[in-house]
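Changelog-adjacent note: as of this version, every example in the card shows the full chain rather than a window. The one below runs 102 residues end to end.
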Amino acid sequence: MANEERALAALADPTRRIVFERLARGPQAVGELAAGLPVSRPAVSQHLAVLKSAGLVVDRADGTRRVYQIDPAGLGPLRAWLDRFWDSALEAFRAEAEREEP
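Full-length structure tokens:
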């Protein structure tokens, strides 16, 4: 499976998207990410494992806890995939704007 496919599959889950969006604010530990979510800390850890295997997040040890953050390198393939559609849409818009009226 291509990197962008793994990233899209990982982000298809609403809870994982919330966790990922929370990480956009900065690095956080599992407990911080789980606060206010309707799932347990172990469930958040499982969601983070999926995001990590998709290349979207990385973690590091900080004492007895793990701190997660978004992996910019992992976003590259997803961004490139999305940019293909954006480039196509912009080209279609340009062509329409430049089209001469009959």
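Structural remarks: The chain is about 65% helix and 15% strand.
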